[in-house]
Amino acid sequence: MSNPKNRSVPPAERLGDSEHLAVLGYQDSFDRSMSLWANFALGFTYLSPLVGVYSLFAVAMAAGGPPSIFWIFIVGSGQMLVALVFGEVVSQYPIHGGIYPWTRRLWGRRYAWMAAWVYIWAMIVTITAVAQFGSGFLASLFNIELTRGATLGLSVALLLVALFLNFTGTKTLAKVARIGLAAELVGVIAVGLYLIIFQRKQGFGIFFDSMGVQGSGSYGAAFLGAALAGLFLFYGFEACGDVAEEVADPARRIPKAMVMTIVVGGISALFSFAGYVMAAPDLAAIVAGRDTDPIPAILESSLGVVGAKVFLLIAITAFLSCVLSLQAAASRLIFSFARDGMVPGHRWLAKVSGTAKVPVNALILACSIPLTLCLIIYSGPDTLLTQITSFAVLGIYLAFQSVVLASLRQRMKGWRPAGPFSLGRLGFAINVAALAYGVLAMVLLAWPGNSGVVASDWTVLIGLAVVAGSGLLYLLTAKPDRRSTAPSGDAIEVARRLQAGRPATNQADGPAETPAAHR
């Protein structure tokens, strides 16, 4: 037996970024200026624990009481499994686009089209939800009563400001993202620690006290009802892979950035959530559902009027950065679809502005649909925002699990991920565990309500059925998958080429179609 120390490094470990892309059938045509830290910052800003905790703190507390904080541990652990699977995939396929090209290369064109279609709509609804929740901070900053009309107007303002900034180009996007990262770290970790250490009004035992949210029923059901507190937090790490061709050494750095996003995001969310609970002057009112926007009052009682205003500015910066990043990500995915002729109006959506070099029409679409949804929320029931937020999270989890399932399918066919980041023998077990976690999460998100109103109780599944059904109908009638000649279903073949260091054919002309491309 040979000594492990004397074994030569496999070809896949020695490939440079351009050589790795060549094996995948692409030319290296982007500026690889993004470092590990910058890639992590992108994912962390997208994940945005400040936005996530603020958005659903009151909902989680009313549903599950203080113990709902444990969903941060549960979901963080589950999403870490998903991130590890993603890490192996992006390490073999460090190419632009994330979920769309990953599912395409792991399974096929039609499968990838459906996964990306659902993901696009989930992102658009998430943009809407973040803008709606951010309106509360804007209202508090300017002492505006948070009526339905004010929520609509302020949400529209956030969307339009983000659109204007996105129009100015990628450099502005990068600057705002860096500022948003700093705002997040101050707003969640520093403020959270301050509240826990200096403004504590409840002891740590409060996190084991349901405070009667279960009524006469079982607390288990109430706790499950608070799952959204964690499920809404832990996505955004996949954005690290969306810009793979702009990252130096992406096959190694992006998996690390994904893991860092989960770990730092989870710790930040814990500090933030715990700080709000422990510093709340009237926790009972929050748990009882009488105070539906408690965080501004908690901050003012703990930080004073001036301190609360400073925090509000920090929070608004984080919300704006989150909306900006979501708009940009959604527009790039829409653009990539349109460039391949995969959506209606693809020629219009595939246009890029000549000066700022951004997909301007895709950006307009990524803003105009959320604007329309804001109008629907304005005229709908009070629970509609929470319901569409649940749909958005369900759609994103479904898209995530499409990657996990496709990865597991390839492993069962003999695929051994060939990128530098590898889980080794644990890969199969982690893949299975990630899929099991994802199925459980989707069941929790899709579980109908109990109000007795069918349209309200089944909103999440109805929304998913409409989105998936319309996408499937278009896929089967228009057959957009036939317009694209990019490679698909080639995970095993690419792994072999990476190990051999052998490039794909016709790479000078762009992506090469594999002979046995699956649909």
TrEMBL record:
<feature type="transmembrane region" description="Helical">
    <location>
        <begin position="111"/>
        <end position="134"/>
    </location>
</feature>
<feature type="transmembrane region" description="Helical">
    <location>
        <begin position="384"/>
        <end position="405"/>
    </location>
</feature>
<dbReference type="InterPro" id="IPR002293">
    <property type="entry name" value="AA/rel_permease1"/>
</dbReference>
<feature type="transmembrane region" description="Helical">
    <location>
        <begin position="356"/>
        <end position="378"/>
    </location>
</feature>
<keyword id="KW-0472">Membrane</keyword>
<feature type="transmembrane region" description="Helical">
    <location>
        <begin position="310"/>
        <end position="335"/>
    </location>
</feature>
<feature type="transmembrane region" description="Helical">
    <location>
        <begin position="179"/>
        <end position="198"/>
    </location>
</feature>
<feature type="region of interest" description="Disordered">
    <location>
        <begin position="500"/>
        <end position="519"/>
    </location>
</feature>
<keyword id="KW-0812">Transmembrane</keyword>
<feature type="transmembrane region" description="Helical">
    <location>
        <begin position="146"/>
        <end position="167"/>
    </location>
</feature>
<feature type="transmembrane region" description="Helical">
    <location>
        <begin position="458"/>
        <end position="476"/>
    </location>
</feature>
<feature type="transmembrane region" description="Helical">
    <location>
        <begin position="257"/>
        <end position="279"/>
    </location>
</feature>
<keyword id="KW-1133">Transmembrane helix</keyword>
<feature type="transmembrane region" description="Helical">
    <location>
        <begin position="218"/>
        <end position="237"/>
    </location>
</feature>
<dbReference type="Pfam" id="PF13520">
    <property type="entry name" value="AA_permease_2"/>
</dbReference>
<dbReference type="GO" id="GO:0022857">
    <property type="term" value="F:transmembrane transporter activity"/>
</dbReference>
<dbReference type="GO" id="GO:0016020">
    <property type="term" value="C:membrane"/>
</dbReference>
<feature type="transmembrane region" description="Helical">
    <location>
        <begin position="36"/>
        <end position="63"/>
    </location>
</feature>
<feature type="transmembrane region" description="Helical">
    <location>
        <begin position="69"/>
        <end position="90"/>
    </location>
</feature>
<feature type="transmembrane region" description="Helical">
    <location>
        <begin position="426"/>
        <end position="446"/>
    </location>
</feature>
<protein>
    <submittedName>
        <fullName>Amino acid permease</fullName>
    </submittedName>
</protein>
<keyword id="KW-0813">Transport</keyword>
